[in-house]
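Morning run. Coffee first, then this:
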Amino acid sequence: MSSRERNTTTQMLIGAAVILAGFMFLIDNLGWIDLDMRVHFWPFVLMVVGASTLAQAPRRGSGAYLAGGLMIGFGAVSLLKGLGLIYISWKVLFPIGIIALGVLMVFRARHRSSSTSAADAMADVDNPDRSALFNVSEGETSERVLDLTAVLGGFQRKVTTQDFRGGDITSIMGGVDLDMRTASLNGTAVLNVFALMGGISIKVPTDWTVELEGTPILGGFDEKTMEPKDASKRLVVRGTAIMGGVEIRN
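And here it is:
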């Protein structure tokens, strides 16, 4: 399946979910069913995001299958709880969500480790931080492949590698600030991003062509880069922003 076909599939999925949400609001307002959208809406959004992640999994790798499955599962259980179809205490459900997030982070770390070259492994010695939980991590990195996860915390990274190859950036109620203006790449690099009630800011060199393939849900993608003279260096930014934002600029 081509990139354009996968993008169309994702957009159709999001569109169908928006239509379904509209019908839910309509029948609730008509009094046909009694829904508390403050309780039921966020699990629905989480399930939609999970489905969108699964739709993008063929190009994002096995980690996207796990992330999508976890979001759909957690959202479904939360929705069934809200509807009164199952009973499970938030004292149990919330820790399960934390455990699921930890499993996802461990899986991504193992996958990243197994796919990293020896040269990247040597660079990891000087760049050990990949997760920011309740803190802000600052520094410089020469890694060719990025894998950063900020949860209620943040990253401020200056990327200096001259052979950037992409990676994965996740921000959950946190922030990631990448300064890549001194970096370079050969050909095309793909950067997968996910922002949930958080923000991701990326500064790129003026000779990079930026292509956005993002899905905003109550959030946004903003690209403010200058068009270079040639398109020999291309950065593709893919992902989802939910009640958050992703900005790319020079």
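The first strand starts at residue 131 and ends at 133. Good start to the day.
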